[in-house]
Design a protein that fits this description.
Low-confidence stretches: none
Strand order of the largest sheet: 2-1-5
Number of helices: 3
Number of strands: 5
Radius of gyration: 15 Å
């Protein structure tokens, strides 16, 4: 069995944290072996835009995504697939991307 046969695809929800010093950098919020739970999370947490003091928010107040901006797909954010050999490869790939 070669390395390619052992490789697995993991999916990462990459968003930018509005509290971060460099909001243009993505943050790996969650990862999963299939994309569907991440897509469902994005859809279920999405609300009409609202303001919290000086913050413009797009996700449910008190929810796990409240402090993140919606994905900027043109910046490579959203649900991203990583083909990796090990979980360490996934961690390294995410660190290099963010």
């Amino acid at each position: 069995m070669n390395h390619e046969e052992k490789a697995e695809t993991f999916y990462v929800l990459l968003l930018n944290d509005m509290r971060a010093a460099n909001i243009e950098n993505g943050t790996a919020v969650y990862w999963c072996r299939t994309p569907e739970p991440l897509v469902q999370l994005l859809e279920s947490e999405k609300v009409d835009p609202w303001q919290d003091g000086g913050w413009n928010k797009a996700f449910r107040q008190g929810g796990p995504l409240e402090w993140f901006n919606p994905p900027w797909e043109s910046a490579g954010q959203g649900v991203i697939a990583y083909r990796v050999q090990t979980l360490e490869d996934l961690t390294q790939g995410i660190a290099e991307y963010t």
